[in-house]
Every structure is written in C-alpha cells, then in structure tokens.
Amino acid sequence: MAAETPAERIAALRAVIDRHAEAYYEKDAPEIPDAEYDRLLRELLDLESEHPELATPDSPTVRIGGDINTAFSPVVHRVRMMSLHNAFDIGELESWSERVERRLEGNAVPEYSVELKFDGLAISLRYENGVLVQGATRGDGAVGEDVTHNVRTIADIPQRLPAGAPAILEVRGEVFMRLSSFAALNARQKAEAEATGKEPKLYVNPRNTAAGSLRQIDAAITADRDLSFFCYQLGSVEGGPALATHTETLEWLGSLGFPINEHTVTCSTIGEVAERVEELNAARHDLDYEFDGVVVKVNDLRLQNELGADAKAPRWAIAYKLPPEERTTTLLDIEVSIGPSGQATPFAVLDPVFVGGVTVATATLHNQDQVAAKDVRPGDVVIVRRAGDVIPEVVGPVLSERDPASKPWTFPTDCPVCGEPLVRPEGVAATHCVNFHCPRQIRGRIEHWASRNAMDIEYLGEKNVDRFVDAGLLHDVADLYSIDFDVILGMDGFKEKSVANLRHAIEASKQKPLGNLLFGLRIPEIGQVNAQTLAAAFGTMDRIVEASVEEIAAVDGFGTVIAESVHAWFSQDGARDLVDRLARAGLTMEAAQVDESVEKTLDGQAVVVSGTLEGFTRDGAKDAIIARGGKSPGSVSKKTLALVVGGDPGASKVTKAEEAGVPVIDEAAFVRLLETGQLPEGLDS
What we know:
This protein is of the alpha+beta class and 685 residues long.
C-alpha cells in the first residue's frame, strides 16, 4: 500500500479526533486515555504547521470543547470560556515563557501563578446581586449547557454571596468528584446490586462520573453524587474591586465564600515553576482528588491583557500535562502465571508502552472474572494504567479498534507449569493449581522462606532457587539444611567463596525466631504480625501443632477463620513431617523469651512504625515495642496508641492516622514513649 499523503493523514486524524471528542465532551464516555487524545492532537497540529495550506478554521486544533447536548438549554457565555495550550515537558514550558517575554518586548514576567489542573468538568457560575442565577458548562467555549438545577445541589457552590458582592459576577471553575466520594458511590452501587441479585453497574473513573452527574435531567441524581467544586478564574464582572493580580483575584473570591485550592502558589522564575511542577507530580497520589497537570499563568492582570489570546487559548497561560498514567497499546497475548501458593493469575503480554514513568510490557488482569468483565482479547488495542507504584493493569479495550473476527479469551483448564487440572471452588474468585508438588509452587515456597521478612537467607535469590530445584537439590524448604554444597560448587558461576557465603547464610537462618519460621511456612492467613503473635501465645512449635481450633481462635486478634486455617495447614499430609525435619536440622522451635527486666511501659498498647528510623532497624523498632509489652501491627486502627513516622513513611498510614485521630510522632517522641509510656503533652489519644 502507498504511504498516506499529508492531506490524507490530516483528514484521518481529524475524523478520529472528532469521534473521540464527541465521546469525551458530549457522551462523558471516552474510549481512549487523555494522553492518547493529546498525542493525536499534537500530531495534527504539527502536520498543519508543516502544511499551512491544509489548515482549516473548523480543525480540532482550533476548536474548544465539544458540541452542546440538546437536552439542555443553550447559554451564551458573555466572556468566552477558552481552552489552554499544552506543554508536555519542561523544555516546552520554558519555550512558552520565552514567547511570553518576546511579546512583552523582552521584559521578564515578574511572577507566575501555579495551580493544579483538575480532572473534572469546567463550569461557569453567574450571580446577579449576590444570588446564583445560572450554571453553565463550557460547551464549545462560546455556548454552553444550562445545568443550573444541578449546580444548586453542589454544597461547595454558594447560593448567595455576602453583602457588597458585585451586581454581576461570573466565576469559572471545575466540578469534580473526590476519590472518597467515587469509592463510596461504587460501594453503594455494589451493595444495591447484591441486595437485588443483579450485576453491579460500577463507574469507571471520577472524571466521567462527575461530568455525567452534572448532565442529569433529574437534579436528585446529581445531589446523590456528592460533587465538589474549586474556582480558578473570573468571567464577566460588573461592580467588582480593582484587582492587580490573579492571586489577588483568588483571595477575593475566597472571601466571597468560593472554595479555592490550597495548593496554588506564586513563583518568580520559570525555574521555580519547574521545581513546583516536580513537587506536585510527586504528590500526585496524596490528595483526595485527581489532577492531570499544572496550570501556569502570568500573575499580573495588566500583562495578561497585553498578551491577549489566539483563536483557542490565552497566551498568558499554559497547561503542563503530567506524565500520562494511561496509554493505549496492543494486547499481544494473555498468559497465566502460577504463584507460590498455586494461585493462577492471568496477565497481559503487551506491545511495550511508556506509561506512569516506566516502560510496561506486562500488566495484571487479576482473575478469570476480571478478564470476562473487561472482555479483553489478544489483538485488542487496550488502555493500560500505571499510577504511582501501583502494578500496571489493563483497564479495558478500545472497542472501536477491535477486529470483528476476534473471539473472547477462555481461561485454561490445566496448569501451564505442571499440566495438572486447575481448580476454582464455587463462590471463590481465584483459580488454583492444587498440585502441592508443582515446580512453581515449590520454587515459590522456598523463595518466600528465604525472603528478608522470613528467614532472611542472603545469596539464595530466585535464580539460584530455580537452578537448585531444576537440579533436584530442593523439593521443599527443609532440603535447604541438607543441601549438597559440593554439587553447587560444580555449577557454573559458583566459586568457593560464593558457596561459603551461601552455606553461612543458610546456617545463620537456623537462629531466626519461631515467629519468622511460622511466617516463612506460608500458612494461609498468617502474615508477619500474626506469626509473631502465634509464637508468643503458644511458646513452642509443638504446642501450636497440637492446638485445637478453639485454642488458636482464643489468641488475641485471631478468631475462627484464622484458627481454622492454621489448624488445617498443620493437619495436611506432610506438614508435621516437614516441621520435624526442620527441628532435626536445628532450627529454633521456641519463642524468644521476653526480657522481664524491661519495664512494660506499653502493656497491651499498639504502636505502628512507618518509614526509616535512624536509631532502629525496622525489626529493632518492632522488638523494642514488644519487649515493653506492646504490639506492633502493620496497619493503623482506632485502637492504635501512636503512629511513629521516620523517613519516607507510607502516605496511606499517615492519612488513616489523621482520620482516626491517632497521634503521629517522630523518632525522638518514640524513644520517650518507650521509656515512659507517655505521649508528648497534648497528643494523648
């Protein structure tokens, strides 16, 4: 086939962009991520710049928003609601700043306002004599949709302004849905579906949900969605005060009762702006709402007027788009991995794509039901999401790109590793390989046993575990303590020193406490904290092995579910033999004795540690708490006495502590707490 000419490519791009713009702006149901839409628009803009004779006045590159929905009355904006040009890297941001200064005849901009670019729906609010009379969407920038009846249901938006408000005031801002409200809405949907026996209709993301909620005919539906609002700009004003800067404008709007985002700052140079962009990008997942960029504005209103606007956007502002967390790519295949416990997890093999700051070639598909619900198929163009440190996942297919001949993917019936049947019990989401001797499970159990939080066997590693299992040296964790080091010495890559290091690490693991050994066995429901609790409660492995379900359930924080899981594990074929072999190998089968000379300053109290402390290792901090009669769980609850934070603490733990009213203390206060059992004055929980 002949390559496309520029005119043909431009025509094709305009058609696909128009289709996706309609899905985004009018139907609130986008088929592709924002980053993909931006990429298409950027390609079209570049082609039109290279071939100006092919540019047209109705091109998507100069159009603002989309057509209005005829279900709503049209509203003509007295001051156009313009779009913004985008910058995708710091170099483009600097180029914009240089263009601004050229237009100002070489004069440096004294100050920039830097604020978040919210992921919601732009809205204009009109007040007459201090009373809200109209709420309208942006629409195509010149004409929007009248959604006054829905705007009145949003608690953040004042219905009436204080005395002295201008005769006419139009305020622009963003209607959005907080992540907590979005989660609560989907939880309600799920609960209602379960009550009626129907499939739940879950919403995909907060942005589309907010936009769809604001475009409801029935305002009662909008009111039920718990929408929020931030204002960021003035429209038409009659009778307002003289304002010199954008910052002053926001402060004045705040005094009238409008919600102003607290993360807006001013910067003196574009270098400071770039630093602020990096700070906000790092905090991207710390807030209760989504933002996909940063808006940079010339702060001086006089300079804004001087700079003016082009057909689409003001020249005095630009939107810096943060690295995309969603991109599209081709799903090459769906494969199934077998985990250490035998769980069969489907995953997507992707045409590698750069998303969320890394190149992604595989992504999770969670389980059989998720694959069916998303209906993704090999050969599909799919949306891939990676937010922060979250494992990449496939969001769904781009149905408009699907091959009509494609067929739904079916889950395999046999384990891809050992060939034994896969089993999915009724009412359970997970599918398992139940062959205890499956090589992947053997490897997984040994890898977990050797991990830092279990027996901490250095120099073993996944690759060495694979080699030793393949060579028939290891069949279970007890084999580590009778492994033939002479055979290992004969393997490629091993020298006397490396074998000696491995031998020493395996020997050292025998001294690990009983709690570590219990965690290393991968007993279902027994994590690090439960393992230590179980060891402390019974004192010896023999007592745990012989304990009844009732005795185990009586352990503080356990209960029937955990007790039945522990009892069932020790009752299975081979479990007691494995424990006996470990005992004969010399591993510790008794709990560490508590130092009775240490004062029990934290008797029965729970203290959670998050982040890196200077004077304690992670295990050392936990041991110090337990030695003083306390508990050191892995998560914060209302019963937690305090959360100790060091360097790089978990943001979710800090947030949960603040929500639960749990005191957050530093390392110095932690040391005093260990000594005295007392929190700093004024921080008592």
